[in-house]
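User: Run a structure prediction on this.
Assistant: Running it now.
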Amino acid sequence: MALLPDLVINQIFRLVTTKTAVRMSFLSKQWEGMLSSLPMLDFDEGGDHRFDQNDNFIQHSKFINILQKYWELCEKDREATKTTPLDKFRLRMTRYSSRDASMVYKLLSSSIERSVKELDISLRGCTVKNYYYLCRTNLINAKTLTTLNLEYVRMKNIDSCVEPIDYSISLRLLPSLKTMSLKTVQFDHNALFFLVWECPFIEHLSLASCSFELSEIRLLSPTLKSLEIKHCKASQAVLYVEDLESLSIVSSDFPLEGVILERCFKLKHVNICAQFLEWFYLQGQCHDVNAVIDAPALFFFSFRGHLESKFSLKAPNLRKSRIILLNEELSSFTGQWKHFPKLKDFLQEFGSCKEMVLYVDDFEVLIFPEDFRKTLASPILADLEFLELTIENPPTYERDKQNLKDSLHWMAPALKLIESDVYLN
């Protein structure tokens, strides 16, 4: 066969699937060499994931043969292949079985040797128990990886530290990773925690239909900016995420009962739709978070942050709340209306609560002016019966104490008990 310019062969390879390109590689040594240096590889098995049809089994065998052929070509000229960077490697199996594990390992290792930037691996098979088991050795040299997409795999706990967590970035497995998408992944105990920990610069994480050995999602990341959790099999999520800006949680099929958000100083957007969610903690001096929460079973809500935050709660069964407002600047607004509309809108979202723990910096923050009260047709906290009140700067004069009591009873006319320090006695 006459030699064609490398540019022409390269253009041909870009117009056909990677499977077809492998089949064409037998044409000449030139074609073989071009294949092993392609910057993007996409092996998609296609078809039905079932093995009960003879045609499916035959098609899967042919697909494995193509993968074997590609790997042999890479091994044949390994030194040259290693020097050619790989932008993306995508492997989609629809009939994976444990017999294919060694081939998957070889392809992953070969891609990482080529300094791959994006890995997209989906290994769907007939049974969950035969999922491909990803471990530390699969990722040990993936220093250039920026995007990781995994589907239908199992993740081991990749922590290798006997001592407390090593904070050295240079020792992490995935120092370049920014985006990770995990779908239908099974995690061993703490496997997700340490996988994220091994990514010191991760910014975006998506979890969909994942399951966890102890039914808990636990994350610690100082860099994560957006987090999406959809239909995961977990009863609670505990998240320590200092830089998180956006959180989305959807849970309808499995009872996610509780969410704890700690140290979320930069949180801006929260969208939660969770049918079985019973308790929610949002801590960390949130400044101006905008949260939409649809949780018909929600019973307890805890918030620590600033009044600029806005909540839209669809939680008809909410009964208890703990609210810690950190707005020190509100203490200078005596007799003014500047913060009262915000405070009214904020507290009204918790109107169904029977019990509330409330902290403010200054007692004057809670004394609504008479003229302002006349603008409202209904109480702010219509169902509240018990209030535990903590004020950093409490009233000392009897008149101020009485004004505060009057305002509280206007806010919550059903109040039966107010617990506070001696200033309200």
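Residues 331-335 have pLDDT under 50 and may be disordered.
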